[in-house]
């Protein structure tokens, strides 16, 4: 027990340390070095949890925030969070390691540390109330990232959409934890409110319009950090899947599949690289949602794998766009930019991470999508066809972006004196992500087995709740 | 894993055959990712050795299989992704056809590898070329030996991606890049059709084992005539996309943007025949689906006629050779539809080897021709007449125009598919922007949005 508390303390203390240090008069580059070191340490600490089974049974249970007689786990480490914690740490490392120097400031580093802290805390609880509080905090932090006048409009868009989502979530949670809610119409209403809140947060059609807008005209860095961990998917797994009726799950899955195809199709035709990233994110995160809302163990495990592969691959891809923008300004996909020869590592990493997003063989994304289709095809063949179409379209969208951003021109759209190649810190981070995506794609057994265990656990919980009705 | 004596060496030999180019891909790929490409002489030697080892192993496997002669064998190398229900199993379906095609593929790839080593000497993309060639050979071997849909699809995808990236090999040229994207677009349709067939197969038969489609297993009761026909039609669409059959033929001349050795190995000999091979493997399925068989035959004959006409009016040697290849591919597909499987395979193997030679020698032939023309001070070409078999001048002119414009397939594709898709997508993008504007209901300063 004490060991688990120690590891949890480390996970929470590291981003808190960076956040605290950001208030001191430390040089920004030095603060970045501290953040990179903390993120690496956090990643290593988070990796201990899935590798050490005794740590995974830890929980602090309370009935203070719920009416359920058995209480709920306020803090827990289980098989599901075992892989999500290193994932969150990896996203933090990616963010602090490759953020261009020009975009680096103390407040930004503080925000990334706090956002990571909130994400990690979300992944450690099953309490609806705690999740609500963390959700309010993370939306507030995202809004603060858009506080400058240049992003006033995007701030309003986010405030309206995510404000509505948070409000619905709050009402849903209030109904859910209220007295005598179990097995009543109130629970159904509460569930629908939480479902809509999760759909808005995940950018599922028809509640999606804020996602491409924020990616395109908002600040891409905070948008990546807010969206890539997919806390909405976690809300779905913890709050919706165990309680929702089969019809509710089927409705969510259908909406998610529609979004997967819609996002992929629109990503293919965008002029702006940022907007294309927004649609790609919508498509990929919708696939996760579709998998999570399927009651097959294999499909659910597939959804959990796609969660990691799409999150990491997408975050890496979008970070590549940011790195390119730092060297070339805004990227338009209607023309060719060239430059492969001057930045081959970035080009290859971009392609590899994009292909991982699309489920290309040899990457983790392929394993996830294969499991998703395999599990769903018996009971829900529509999912199989939708995944196929979405995958074909996202593949095209990624290759179009790659060709436009790195090929088609003998020179490059940049001053010859400008150093285009990656710095070692950036190059190693991208290479590490590519190696993780391909390595886990070639040797997926440990991760896949752990995702099967997690999906077994989720469906067991669902079965218990359903049989209790 | 089957452990009876005769299958042990076969299992090992097939593993070495497939593993050798895969290992080459890993070594060259990691070096590229780390921006530390190997020196040319190492790359060339590694590629040559890898192809030689793969070819030798697969030829030995062919001999061992011929000696044991126990019918179709199913080699299983365990589960790749999962120990639970479902997941991806690494399985190969081995028989004379698959081993012969696999050995042929590695032999041709070996020849091309040796040729490319000199042809691309000091070319900036030398290392990239060999990475993609290794990816292609690995993909072809997986297509040839696949025992289930997942393995087949992995191979199919590797072939498709390497093909598109090699079309864009001279990536500083905008035309090469836009043509590569166009080629990839058709390949994605082909991929989607194949995966849809796989989804349907899993849904109706509860398995993705190819022994159900390719023979070697008892027919499943779930695979009714209707289901078999739909799956077969989806496979034919996949084949049509990959082998440039009508109506997907327009990508073929675009694919000639790549370097000559890659054009030779892809569009002269191996990749373009991958579809024919798949159809040949799926012969048991086609026999259950007469309508699909008719469709395949019709497509093959129409493609042969179209490509045969088109090849006669092309103005560059690579396009002319590509359409000549396509003519033969159309004929091979027709032979398969007619049930002449042995003839089809002999035709495929012979044509792949012959066309490889033609493609690889084309630059020399042109060089010699130009030397001859310089020496005589005039063009050495014929009288310029084309399609003289058509008597009527008017009909000949029309046919000439159609052939010259390659059947107007590109513009038809643009009008029927691409333009409506772009219009719809543009409309939806605007709708998304409008949703943001109206739902938020704020006065928008245009200047804000453009920041």
Question: What does this protein look like?
Answer:
The complex is a heterodimer of chains A (469) and B (451). By secondary structure, chain A is mainly alpha-helical. Chain A has 2 domains: 125 residues; 342 residues, no CATH class. Helices cover 73% and strands 2% of the residues of chain A. Chain A has 18 helices and 2 strands. In chain A, strands 1-2 form a two-stranded antiparallel ribbon. The longest helix of chain A is centred in the middle third of the chain and has 32 residues. The radius of gyration of chain A is 21 Å and the shape is globular. Helices cover 74% and strands 3% of the residues of chain B. The termini of chain B are far apart. Chain B has 18 helices and 2 strands. Chain B has a two-stranded antiparallel sheet with strand order 1-2. Chain B has 451 residues and is an all-alpha fold. Chain B folds into 3 domains: 145 residues; 251 residues; 43 residues, no CATH class. The N terminus and C terminus of chain B are likely disordered. In chain B, helix 5 packs antiparallel against helix 6, helix 6 packs antiparallel against helix 8 and helix 10 runs antiparallel to helix 15. The chains are: A mainly alpha (469), B mainly alpha (451). Chains A and B meet through helix 6, helix 8, helix 11, helix 13 and helix 14 of A and helix 5, helix 6 and helix 17 of B.
């Amino acid at each position: 027990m004490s060991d688990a508390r120690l590891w949890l303390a480390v996970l929470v203390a590291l981003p808190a340390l960076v956040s605290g240090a950001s208030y001191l008069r430390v040089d920004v580059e030095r603060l970045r070095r501290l953040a990179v070191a903390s993120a690496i340490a956090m990643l290593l600490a988070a990796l201990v949890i899935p590798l050490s089974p005794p740590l995974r049974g830890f929980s602090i249970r309370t009935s203070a925030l719920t009416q359920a007689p058995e209480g709920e786990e306020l803090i827990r480490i289980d098989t599901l969070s075992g892989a999500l914690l290193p994932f969150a740490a990896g996203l933090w490392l990616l963010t602090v390691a490759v953020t261009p120097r020009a975009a680096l400031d103390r407040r930004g580093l503080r925000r990334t540390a706090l956002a990571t802290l909130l994400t990690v805390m979300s992944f450690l609880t099953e309490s609806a109330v705690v999740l609500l509080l963390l959700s309010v905090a993370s939306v507030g932090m995202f809004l603060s990232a858009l506080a400058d006048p240049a992003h006033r409009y995007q701030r309003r868009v986010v405030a309206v959409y995510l404000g509505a989502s948070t409000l619905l979530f709050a009402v849903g949670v209030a109904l859910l934890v209220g007295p005598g809610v179990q097995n009543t119409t109130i629970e159904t209403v509460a569930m629908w409110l939480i479902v809509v809140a999760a759909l808005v947060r995940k950018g599922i059609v028809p509640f999606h319009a804020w996602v491409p807008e924020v990616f395109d005209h908002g600040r891409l860095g905070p948008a990546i950090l807010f969206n890539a961990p997919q806390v909405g998917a976690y809300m779905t797994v913890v709050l919706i899947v165990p309680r929702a009726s089969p019809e509710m799950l089927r409705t969510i899955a259908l909406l998610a599949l529609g979004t997967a195809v819609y996002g992929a199709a629109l990503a293919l035709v965008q002029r702006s690289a940022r907007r294309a990233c927004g649609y790609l994110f919508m498509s990929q995160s919708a696939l996760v949602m579709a998998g999570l809302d399927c009651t097959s163990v294999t499909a659910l495990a597939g959804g959990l794998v796609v969660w990691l592969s799409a999150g990491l691959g997408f975050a890496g891809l979008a970070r590549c766009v940011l790195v390119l923008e730092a060297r070339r300004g805004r990227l338009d996909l209607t023309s060719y930019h060239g430059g492969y020869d001057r930045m081959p590592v970035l080009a290859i990493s971009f392609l590899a991470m994009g292909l991982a997003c699309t489920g290309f063989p040899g990457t983790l994304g392929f394993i996830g999508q294969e499991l998703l289709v395999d599990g769903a095809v018996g009971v829900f063949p529509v999912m199989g066809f939708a995944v196929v179409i979405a995958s074909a379209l996202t593949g095209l969208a990624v290759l179009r972006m790659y060709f436009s951003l790195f090929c088609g021109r003998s020179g490059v759209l940049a001053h010859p004196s400008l150093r285009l190649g990656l710095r070692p810190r950036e190059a190693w981070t991208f290479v590490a992500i590519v190696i993780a995506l391909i390595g886990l794609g070639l040797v997926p057994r440990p991760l896949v087995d752990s995702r099967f265990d997690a999906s077994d656990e989720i469906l067991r919980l669902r079965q218990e709740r359903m049989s209790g009705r | 894993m089957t452990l009876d004596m005769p299958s042990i060496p076969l299992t090992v030999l097939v593993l070495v055959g497939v593993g050798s180019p895969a290992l080459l891909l890993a070594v060259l790929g990691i070096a590229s990712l780390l921006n530390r490409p190997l020196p040319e002489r190492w790359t060339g030697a590694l590629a040559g050795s890898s192809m030689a080892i793969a070819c030798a192993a697969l030829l030995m496997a062919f001999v061992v299989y011929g000696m044991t002669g126990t019918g179709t064998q199913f080699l299983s190398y365990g589960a790749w992704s999962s120990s639970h229900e479902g997941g991806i199993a690494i399985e190969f379906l081995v028989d004379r056809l698959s081993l012969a095609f696999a050995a042929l593929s590695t032999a041709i790839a070996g020849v091309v590898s040796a040729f490319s080593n000199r042809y691309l000497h000091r070319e900036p993309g030398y290392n990239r070329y060999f990475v993609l060639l290794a990816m292609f050979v690995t993909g072809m071997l997986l297509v040839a030996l696949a025992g289930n849909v997942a393995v087949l699809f992995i191979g199919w995808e590797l072939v498709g991606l390497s093909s598109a990236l090699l079309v864009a090999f001279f990536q500083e040229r905008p035309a090469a890049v836009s043509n590569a994207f166009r080629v990839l677009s058709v390949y994605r349709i082909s991929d989607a059709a194949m995966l849809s067939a796989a989804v349907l197969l899993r849904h109706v038969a509860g398995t993705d084992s190819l022994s159900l489609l390719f023979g070697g297993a008892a027919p499943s009761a779930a695979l009714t005539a209707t289901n078999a026909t739909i799956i077969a039609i989806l496979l034919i669409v996949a084949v049509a996309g990959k082998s440039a059959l009508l109506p997907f033929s327009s990508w073929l001349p675009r694919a000639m943007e790549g370097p000559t050795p890659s054009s030779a190995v892809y569009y002269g000999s191996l990749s373009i025949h991958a579809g024919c091979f798949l159809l040949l493997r799926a012969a048991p399925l086609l026999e259950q689906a007469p309508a699909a068989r008719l469709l395949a035959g019709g497509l093959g004959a129409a493609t042969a006629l179209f490509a045969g006409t088109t090849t006669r009016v092309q103005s560059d040697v690579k396009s002319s050779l590509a359409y000549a290849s396509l003519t033969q591919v159309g004929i091979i597909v027709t032979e398969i539809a007619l049930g002449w499987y042995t003839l089809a395979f002999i035709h495929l193997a012979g044509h792949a080897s012959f066309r490889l030679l033609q493609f690889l020698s084309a630059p020399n032939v042109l060089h010699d021709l130009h030397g001859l023309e310089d020496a005589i001070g005039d063009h050495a070409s014929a009288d310029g007449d084309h399609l003289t078999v058509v008597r009527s001048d008017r009909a000949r002119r029309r046919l000439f125009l159609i052939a010259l414009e390659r059947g107007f397939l590109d513009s038809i594709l643009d009008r029927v598919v691409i333009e409506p898709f772009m219009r719809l997508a543009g409309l939806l993008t605007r709708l998304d922007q409008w949703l943001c504007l109206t739902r938020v209901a704020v006065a928008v300063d245009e200047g804000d949005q453009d920041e």
